[in-house]
């Protein structure tokens, strides 16, 4: 085999391997698309399902973001307004705060409830009466790299970090999630404004798959062109 034929063979082989790799990436994106589509359908079903009882404390360690986030729950008990905590928020209504208030359930457990958006720090709505509320389960927020750290001493909060808020308010054991209260239950009060939960998923996998498959086809065409060029010169 001459040097030029070896060079063409190596180039064609590299293009073939590159094409196969790009094709594999396209298949992977199709699999990711199927997973994301199923996840969106599952979350949509949770959001629109009839409210179910809150998970018992024995189930708290098993709660997971991918399996339980956005479940529609109902709670019965009383708000503990003295523990209300404003958490900085940016919403479609503008900048302001989420009002997180401890809720003592009839079974003795405590759940933080996001009662909704308030434009400025203010006293929480009057509570203390026995009520039944519904809303969406949200897992405790992690610290975010581009936000300032929470400052419990100054009562300045930038994430809805359940455990940190509970510790600062001396609430004792609390559920590892908070509840976004439904809009219908806060509308009569005017403020806070509930029902502002943003449910959005980045789903660009189809675009990525098409891109990888197109690049794979181009690489395969380059491989075929090199092979044909070598065959033509041999002839």
Q: What characteristics describe this protein?
A:
alpha+beta; 5 helices; elongated; 235 residues
Query: How many strands?
Result: 7
Strand order of the largest sheet: 2-4-5-7-6
**Computed Rg:** 27 Å
- Helicity level, as a percent range? 25-40%
Mean pLDDT: 86
Provide a descriptive summary of the structure in words.
- The protein is of the alpha+beta class.
- It contains five helices and seven strands, in the order αβαβββββαβαα.
- A five-stranded mixed β-barrel has the order 2-4-5-7-6.
- Helix 2 links the parallel strand 1 and strand 2.
- The radius of gyration is 27 Å and the shape is elongated.
- The two termini are 15 Å apart.
- The model has no long low-confidence stretch (mean pLDDT 86).
In short:
The protein has 235 residues and is an alpha+beta fold. It has helices spanning 3-48, 65-68, 162-169, 183-186, 205-234; strands spanning 52-53, 72-79, 85-91, 94-105, 110-118, 131-139, 177-181. Strand 4 (94-105) and strand 5 (110-118) form a beta hairpin.
């Amino acid at each position: 085999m001459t040097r030029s034929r070896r060079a063409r063979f190596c180039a064609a082989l590299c293009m073939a391997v590159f094409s196969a790799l790009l094709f594999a990436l396209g298949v992977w994106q199709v699999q990711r698309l199927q997973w994301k589509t199923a996840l969106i359908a599952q979350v949509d079903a949770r959001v629109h399902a009839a409210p179910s009882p809150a998970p018992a404390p024995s189930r708290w360690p098993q709660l997971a973001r991918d399996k339980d986030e956005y479940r529609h729950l109902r709670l019965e008990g009383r708000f503990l307004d003295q523990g209300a905590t404003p958490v900085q928020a940016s919403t479609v209504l503008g900048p302001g705060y989420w009002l997180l208030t401890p809720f003592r359930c009839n079974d003795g457990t405590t759940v933080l409830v996001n009662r909704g958006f308030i434009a400025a720090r203010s006293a929480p709505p009057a509570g203390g009466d026995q009520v039944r509320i519904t809303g969406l389960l949200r897992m405790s927020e992690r610290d975010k790299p581009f936000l300032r750290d929470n400052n419990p001493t100054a009562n300045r909060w930038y994430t809805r970090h359940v455990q940190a808020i509970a510790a600062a308010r001396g609430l004792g054991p609390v559920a590892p999630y908070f509840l976004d209260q439904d809009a219908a239950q806060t509308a009569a009060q005017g403020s806070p404004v509930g029902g502002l939960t943003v449910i959005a998923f980045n789903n660009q996998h189809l675009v990525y798959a098409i891109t990888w498959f197109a690049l794979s086809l181009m690489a395969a065409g380059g491989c075929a062109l090199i092979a044909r060029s070598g065959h033509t010169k041999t002839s």
